[in-house]
Each structure stands twice: as C-alpha cells, then as structure tokens.
Write a structure and sequence with these properties.
disordered C terminus; mainly alpha; single chain; 2 strands
C-alpha cells in the first residue's frame, strides 16, 4: 500500500477519535482537527481541555454566571431569580 494512503487513513482515524472525545467536551471540531493534524498528541490535548460550559450575563452588572439556577450574582450581589438572557 502507498505510504500516502496509510498516512491519510491514520490521520482520519485519529481525527475521528479526536472528534468524538471533543464532542463529549463541547469542542467537536477542535478535537477532530487536533486529532487529524497531531495524532496521539492531539488526542492528549483534547482530553485535557476543560469542559465547555455556557456563560450567562448578569442583567445588572454584566458579570459572567455559569448557571441559571444561582440566586445572586457573585460579582455584584444582585438577586437574579429567573432571568432570560442567552448564553454568550
């Protein structure tokens, strides 16, 4: 088999593995790209990345809030209750 074909197949394999690992962490495209380009090193990098969590903004001070279920903003102390702003 031609060495170029083998390189492409291995790149595709690591890209697919990186895609699925990245997808579970919220970085599917980044995981596929890192796996395809860097192989096992890319898999290690995407595995060590922090989970992506949506950040909401406080309607009073604009500070980042990681969950809609908090009662008060940790930055300004304003009561939040149920607010309807979109993740940024």
């Amino acid at each position: 088999m031609d060495p170029i074909v083998i390189i492409l197949l291995v790149s595709f394999l690591f890209g697919t593995i990186g895609f699925f690992i990245g997808d579970s962490r919220g970085y599917a495209a980044v995981g596929g790209l890192l796996g395809s380009i860097f192989g096992p090193l890319g898999i290690i990098v995407i595995t060590s990345m922090v989970l992506a969590t949506p950040t909401y903004l406080c309607p009073y001070c604009g500070g980042g809030i990681k969950s809609r279920q908090v009662q008060r903003c940790r930055h300004c102390g304003s009561p939040l209750g149920m607010f309807g702003n979109d993740p940024s």
